[in-house]
């Protein structure tokens, strides 16, 4: 059943194109590994197994990595109450609700589909936001579930992760293989590393292009659902400012999940990191929300 979240045909088209292109890259990647490693069954079994694990257990992996746990309505009545209201307004199934005991102010949605989705918020986010601001953030995350882009970004991220792991494996094999390896083996490992690096770069660029647009789409859908874009803009400003003050070590722990976060875990002075960020800049997001505010005629908004 379709929810009342505003549909986004551009997002749907971008997801389809991204998955098609990544599929082509993935097939070429597996074919190259089969030719280089001369082990068709092993490569296919490992690749299929890892992809299935990523798809079916993405929610558990994400919660485990972010120290999250599922909570009941009795444990977190306010959080459940906000999500209940938003789901009723959007006419969508309620996802599972989780809390992460981290001071890093953030939230994310994950899961292979709407029936197996989880929305998780950190205690740091709860502590910093008002009810209206929290509602805006949760509407943003629920729109990811409704638009089904959570599953797409989960699958899309998989290829880059595997390619990156193979690059590391080949690099350390060459580094520590020493004299025990003949020239043919060294050349083979170099080829595997080169192919994997190329695949990682292509998947990186495709995922970044999709991820930035999907965040703008989620901002718009969430703001339209609550009719309070200014509350979402306020939450964005607060969270982005406070993340800059989080210790670098804590940010590094969370950066692997930046594609799923409401706001990327990036510290100050990271111009290069911002260039390749999974999210649009704060200025771009605030500008888009200001336009929505004017469109809705929200009090205090600037007219064009």
Automatic annotation (TrEMBL):
It is found in: Cell membrane. InterPro entries: HtpX_protease, Pept_M48_protease_HtpX, Peptidase_M48. Residues 75-292 form the Peptidase M48 domain. Binds 1 zinc ion per subunit. Keywords: Cell membrane, Hydrolase, Membrane, Metal-binding, Metalloprotease, Protease, Transmembrane, Transmembrane helix, Zinc. Zn(2+) binds at residues 140, 144, 215. The active site is at 141. Pfam families: Peptidase_M48 (PF01435). GO terms for molecular function: metalloendopeptidase activity; zinc ion binding. The chain crosses the membrane at residues 12-34, 40-57, 150-171, 186-207. Gene3D superfamilies: Metalloproteases ('zincins'), catalytic domain (3.30.2010.10). GO terms for biological process: proteolysis. Its cofactor is Zn(2+). GO terms for cellular component: plasma membrane. It is a multi-pass membrane protein. Its EC number is 3.4.24.-. The keyword Zinc applies. It is an enzyme of class 3 (hydrolase). It comes from the Bacteria. Belongs to the peptidase M48B family. This is Protease HtpX homolog. It comes from Streptomyces capitiformicae. The gene is htpX1.
């Amino acid at each position: 059943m379709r929810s009342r979240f505003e549909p986004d045909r551009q997002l749907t088209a971008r997801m389809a194109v991204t998955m098609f292109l990544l599929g082509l890259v993935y097939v070429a990647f597996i074919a190259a590994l089969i030719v280089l490693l001369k082990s068709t069954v092993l490569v296919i079994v490992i690749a299929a197994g890892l992809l299935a694990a990523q798809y079916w257990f993405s929610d558990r992996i994400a919660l485990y990595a972010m120290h999250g746990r599922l909570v009941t309505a009795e444990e977190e009545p306010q959080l459940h109450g906000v999500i209940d209201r938003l789901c009723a307004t959007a006419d969508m199934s309620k996802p599972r609700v989780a809390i992460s005991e981290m001071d890093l102010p953030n939230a994310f949605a994950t899961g292979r589909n709407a029936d197996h989705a989880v929305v998780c918020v950190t205690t740091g986010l709860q502590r910093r936001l008002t009810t209206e601001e929290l509602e805006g953030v949760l509407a943003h995350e629920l729109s990811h579930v409704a638009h089904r882009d959570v599953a797409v970004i989960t699958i899309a991220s998989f290829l880059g992760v595997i390619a990156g792991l193979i690059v590391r494996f080949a690099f350390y094999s060459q580094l520590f293989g020493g004299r025990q390896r003949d020239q043919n083996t060294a050349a083979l490992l170099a080829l595997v590393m080169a192919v994997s690096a190329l695949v990682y770069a292509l998947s990186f660029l495709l995922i970044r292009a999709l991820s930035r647009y999907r965040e703008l789409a989620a901002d718009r859908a969430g703001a339209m659902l609550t009719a309070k874009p200014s509350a979402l803009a306020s939450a964005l400003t607060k969270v982005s400012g406070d993340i800059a003050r989080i210790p670098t070590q804590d940010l590094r722990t969370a950066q692997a999940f930046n594609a799923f976060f409401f706001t990327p875990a990036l510290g100050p002075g990271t111009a290069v990191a911002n260039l390749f960020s999974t999210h649009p800049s704060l200025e771009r997001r605030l500008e888009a929300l200001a336009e929505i505010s004017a469109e809705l005629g929200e009090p205090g908004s600037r007219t064009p």
